[in-house]
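Researcher: Good morning. I'm working through a list of sequences from a screen, and I'd like to move beyond sequence-only analysis. For each chain I'm collecting a predicted structure so we can compare shapes side by side. This is the next one on the list. No need for commentary yet; just the structure.
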Amino acid sequence: MILLSLCASAFAESMVYSQSLNTSFSDLFYSKEREEIVALSSEQLYLLSTKDWSLSGVAPCGTFSASGVDVSSDGDLYIGCSDGSISMYDTALQTNAFALEEASSVLSINIKEKQLYALAEQESGGNPRLHHIDLSTQIESTGSFPSTLGYSSYKDSEIVSNFLIVSHGGNNLSKVDLSSGSPTRDDQGPTSPTYSDVLRDVSAANALVAGGTGGVVLFQLSSNNTQLSLSGNDWGEVTALAAGEGSLWIADEQSNSIKEVSYTMGSAAPGNEILQEVALNGITSSVLEMADLGEYLVFVTDGGDYGVITDNPWVTATMSDTATLMTGDSYTFSFSANQEGAYEIRVGDKDGTLLGSGAIEGFEDVEVSFSIDDSYQEGDNELWVLIENDEGSVGYDVVTVTVDNPPSAMILSDDDLQFGDQELYLSFAQSEEPDISHYVVYLSESVFEPSDYETGGPEFEELAEEDRTIEDPAQPSIVLSGLVNETTYYVAVRTYDESGMESGLSNVISATPKPTFSISEQLNEAGGLQGCSSFNLKNGSLNVIAVVFSMLLLYRRKEEDGRREDVRKKAE
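Model: Good morning. Structure tokens for this chain:
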């Protein structure tokens, strides 16, 4: 096993690299929904990408302190704050999403399906209480919740089976039945443990807890009894636990290492034999939390250190130029790994289009160049550098190439442009390209060709550009008003994308505004349908023609009015 930091440039077997954020972490877990490691300090919510191991942060509680974080099935993060509120983070931060009743400071957040459980101190003092919020209704429960715990201090909490297990420090544990809200204290078993981290294992029948010098402690949920599960000389001072497929990882502060034993998620107890041990050379603070991703183990400490443990090749890829590219442009990037193996470079995802492959030596810098073609999509493209060692283990890193081509020129049909009284109505099919921002309409009383204008279009002083701009790219419609009847206008459209790049000018179409008349005006009548009143049997021939003509005019007028109304509604 090798322990890797997120800031190191080279890695060796059993070497430790770490980065300190000069803060004390309080919580950590892996979110499959977000493909991120989520870590929390009192000031920052940190998100560590499991694609490229980049780190980002946000202040989740504003000027207040944060404590406790968990993720919903929708991938939304909920963070407890010291003012008794809960913030929510999806792709943007929403502070004070919930305000707990009569709570002064949130201590922990735990979520099971759509149910959120927040442990918080009371405004009036006393032991903390567990609050319940149904996320589907966003309503806090009353009656059996909030429920008051039997101990006052707090270290950690996790949902195990249908209970919330709370470590209070010292040798005190609590459990709360999530169905009834009923709290229970442990039955005061061994006195040697100093409880800290509760193992995150929802499916387990009993809870495992880091017990300091007491080793690993089993908390029996049916009887509330506690017993030593792993203790003795091999376990000096256990501070944190993490479980994965077939393994339990145990952080031992006394030996300054992380040890692995066999364990099946949901089982009663771990194995006794230490399968391997990773020395935490250079780490001087206590490991508080760990998360097992399967091929990677991530840990954080109370001194702000964080690191990654893995047997896989550790890959570092670097783009030499971050400029935005167009089809036909070339780019270069380099990568290295701490192990030799075979590499593949794919665009899109791990199984995307293969761009190149080859062999790499350990710690060798490889530089490659590619050109933008139809394998790339508009916008950001992930380039995956995958390296497989001789044992079949694969490591990777991801860099991003941004492609921004000019939008394609629109193709208009004659039916896209309709006439009205001193108006033209333009409506056309939207562009299928994903990053369109808006359209600008150009018109002229003179014939022009798209090739006449490399950018922009003909000047038209009667309408400012803002009056010729279609802001909604999904509904490209506009009414061009203030025109002169019986004058032919030539119209074309240019498309703009979100980065400001413009398409070529569309083909040119034309139409002529004309006065429009009602049926009564067409028949020189006072109004309504009085043209029909002159119909008689003696002089029927001419009047029948007039009536038929008026009906045709009515149908055509209704059809045109309907089209114009559709355009007006879209333009609005």
